[in-house]
Amino acid sequence: MMHIKSDVNFTLELSSDMAKTVLVTGATGFIASHTIQQLLAKTDYVVRGTVRSLKKPDRFAHLTSLPHANTRLELVEANLLDDKAWAPAVKDCAAVLHIASPFLLTLHDPQKDLVEPAERGTENVLRAAIAEDSVKDIVLTSSLAAIADAPVDGKVFTEADWNTLSSLTRNPYCYSKVRGEQKAWELLKNVSDKRLVVLNPFLVTGPSLTKTINPSVGTFVDMFNGKVPAMANLSMGFVDVWDVAWAHVLALTNPNAKGRHILCNEVQSMQQVVETLRTKFPNAKYLVYCT
User: Where is the NAD-dependent epimerase/dehydratase domain (predicted)?
Assistant: First the structure.
């Protein structure tokens, strides 16, 4: 066995045969955690995940306790905005899954809080991946938000569409996903020895591997605690986090995968969602009414 030891006495064991290594950015995130779980369970990859700090092991305890983590999981520190952090992070990796990107419901500065980490973070990670000869496959987690800002009557959106409506003042989260994905395609445009696959999931829901409630699921939690007394009866697409994680594994392991891929299990109205929740939780006091 080989041991990798951080400067804070956090030790992980890696298999000595050094199977192919895949870098997963934002390892503790909702989608990334599930993706790491499936990579460890269903592939032979060694997973190198990035975290903001190794000095807070409680933040990634759910990862180090996964089956096979003691032999095939390595965690390293890397900040999206630190361009010097990513060359060592991608060193000797066969692939990069760039999943990290902020999703914040409360914003102080959309440019600083969302757009800069999405665009500059993508540039920092992908420039390092492009410069690393061993990296051949790159999977980017984008969003349906990069394809469409809002429904258009009679319009069926496809992977050929781009969201041209969002801005810093109109749906800045959507705008950040557009800028991040566009940066990826720009960087890989003339790179012939790397394969880029982009995944564009709609609203990702499902169980969390941690006690932390991610923002997309948090909306539904707020329905139960009375923080949202009413909600517009919008319709939106939903996709299970397990399916999104599996899509990352498939994009990584299928050499024929390329381009953009919308991920959506089904479309439901918020009224349908509330009715389903009422059926499942008949004693819930604060489920919202849709208007």
Answer: 22-260
What residues contact 122, with CB distance under 8 A and at least 6 apart? 98, 101, 140, 180, 181, 183, 184, 187
Measuring CA to CA, how many Å separate 12 from each of 38, 84, 249?
A: 19, 23, 23
Residues 119 and 180: beta-carbon distance below 8 Å: yes
pLDDT at 288: 67
Neighbours of 21 (CB within 10 A): 20
261, 233 Cβ separation under 8 angstroms = no
Q: Rounded CA gap, 232 and 276, in Å?
A: 16
Active site residues: 177
**Structural domain harbouring 179:** 2-207+238-265
- Distance in angstroms (rounded) separating the CA atoms of residues 80 and 86: 8
Question: Which tokens hold the place of 260?
Answer: 């953009």
The structural domain count of the chain equals 1
Question: Higher-confidence residue: 267 or 24?
Answer: 24
Over range 210-216, report the average pLDDT: 80
Within a domain: 278: no
Q: Which two tokens stand for residue 237?
A: 């697409």
**Domain-embedded: residue 217:** no
Residues 6+ apart with CB under 8 A from 80: 25, 100, 117, 120, 121, 124, 125
Neighbours of 110 (CB within 10 A): 18
Supply the pTM of this predicted model. 0.89
DSSP letter (8 states) at residue 246: H
272 has a pLDDT exceeding 60 = yes
Beta-carbon neighbour count of residue 225 at 10 Å?
A: 10
Contact 175, 182 (CB under 8 A): no
Query: Taking 60 as the threshold, does the pLDDT of residue 8 lie above it?
Result: no
114: left (phi over 0), alpha (psi -120 to 50) or beta: alpha
CA distances from 67 to 34, 37, 73 (A): 13, 8, 10
